[in-house]
C-alpha cells in the first residue's frame, strides 16, 4: 500500500507562525491581569490545532465567569486577526516545506487542514504565494477530525493511503480517529510512536520511500 495524498496543518507546519499567534492571545488577555494572560497562553499552547473561538469561550468561562456572546466572540476574532495577520504575511516557511510542495505538486493531491477560520486561511496562503499548490484549503469549522474526514472523502483516496502532517496533539488525534498516516513536527510531538522531525527537512525523503 502506497502513499497517495498529503494533508498539512498550517501553523507550525507550513508557516513558522506559532509565536505570532501566541503573542496575539497574550495581548487579548492582558487587560485581565498577568495570571489570566499566562494561563490563556498556556491553554493555547496545550491545545494546538483547536479553533481560537473555542479558546475564547474557555477564557470567558474561566476568567469572566460566563459564556461569551456571539458579538464578543466575533469582536475578539477581529482583534486577534488584526494583531496577527500582518506578521503572518511575512513569517518564514517551516524548513523543508518548499521542497515538499515543489516536489509533489501535480504528483500527489495536497490539502490544508487547519483550526484557523477557512476564509482567513485561504487569504493568508494566497498572500504567501503557496495557495496554488493545494487541491483544497480547509479550516474551522468543523474541528480537526471532521475536517480531515471531509478531505479524505473528497480526495477519493483511502484514509490508510493519506498522510496527515501536524505539530499538535489534535493533529495526531485526528489522524488516529480518521485512520490516516501521521508525521509529527516540532518539540510537542517528539518521542512518540510516529515519524517525527524538528522541521520538515526530512519529509521529502520519507514520502519518496512510500509514494506510488
Structure notes:
Helix 6 (118-127) links the parallel strand 2 and strand 3. The protein is built from nine helices and six strands. The model has no long low-confidence stretch (mean pLDDT 95). Helices cover 49% and strands 14% of the residues. The protein has two domains: 5-16 and 92-208, Rossmann fold (3-Layer(aba) Sandwich); 18-88, DNA polymerase, domain 1 (Orthogonal Bundle), CATH 1.10.150. It has a six-stranded parallel β-sheet. The chain is elongated.
Topology:
Elements lengths: L4 E4 L9 H12 L4 H13 L5 H13 L5 H19 L8 H8 L5 E8 H10 L8 E5 L3 H12 L6 E5 L2 H10 L2 E5 L10 E2 L5 H6 L4
Parallel strand pairs: 1-2, 1-4, 2-3, 4-5, 5-6
Helix pairs in contact: 1-2, 1-4, 2-3, 3-4, 7-8
The CATH architecture designation of the largest domain is 3-Layer(aba) Sandwich
Give the integer mean of the pLDDT values: 95
Q: Strand percentage, roughly?
A: 5-15%
Radius of gyration: 17 Å
Shape by Cα distribution: elongated
The name of the CATH topology of the largest domain is: Rossmann fold
Number of strands: 6
- As for the number of domains, it is 2
Adjacency order of strands in the biggest sheet: 3-2-1-4-5-6
Question: CATH superfamily assignment of the largest domain?
Answer: HAD superfamily/HAD-like
Work out the helix count: 9
N to C succession of SSEs: EHHHHHEHEHEHEEH
Amino acid at each position: 500500500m502506497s502513499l497517495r495524498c498529503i494533508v498539512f496543518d498550517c501553523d507550525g507546519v507550513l508557516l513558522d507562525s506559532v509565536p505570532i499567534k501566541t503573542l496575539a492571545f497574550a495581548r487579548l488577555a492582558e487587560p485581565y491581569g498577568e495570571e489570566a494572560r499566562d494561563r490563556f497562553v498556556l491553554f493555547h499552547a496545550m491545545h494546538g490545532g483547536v479553533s481560537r473561538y473555542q479558546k475564547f469561550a474557555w477564557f470567558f468561562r474561566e476568567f469572566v465567569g460566563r459564556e461569551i456572546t456571539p458579538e464578543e466572540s466575533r469582536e475578539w476574532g477581529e482583534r486577534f486577526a488584526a494583531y496577527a495577520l500582518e506578521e503572518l504575511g511575512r513569517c518564514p516557511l517551516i524548513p523543508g516545506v518548499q521542497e515538499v510542495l515543489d516536489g509533489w505538486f501535480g504528483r500527489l493531491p495536497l490539502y490544508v487542514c487547519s483550526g484557523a477560520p477557512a476564509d482567513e486561511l485561504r487569504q493568508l496562503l494566497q498572500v504567501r504565494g503557496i495557495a496554488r499548490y493545494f487541491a483544497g484549503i480547509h479550516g474551522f469549522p468543523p474541528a480537526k477530525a471532521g475536517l480531515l474526514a471531509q478531505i479524505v472523502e473528497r480526495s477519493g483516496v483511502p484514509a490508510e493511503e493519506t498522510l496527515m502532517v501536524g505539530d499538535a496533539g489534535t493533529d495526531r488525534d485526528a489522524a488516529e480517529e480518521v485512520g490516516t498516516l501521521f508525521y509529527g513536527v516540532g518539540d510537542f510531538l517528539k518521542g512518540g510512536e510516529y515519524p517525527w522531525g524538528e522541521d520538515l527537512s526530512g519529509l521529502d525523503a520519507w514520502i519518496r520511500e512510500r509514494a506510488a
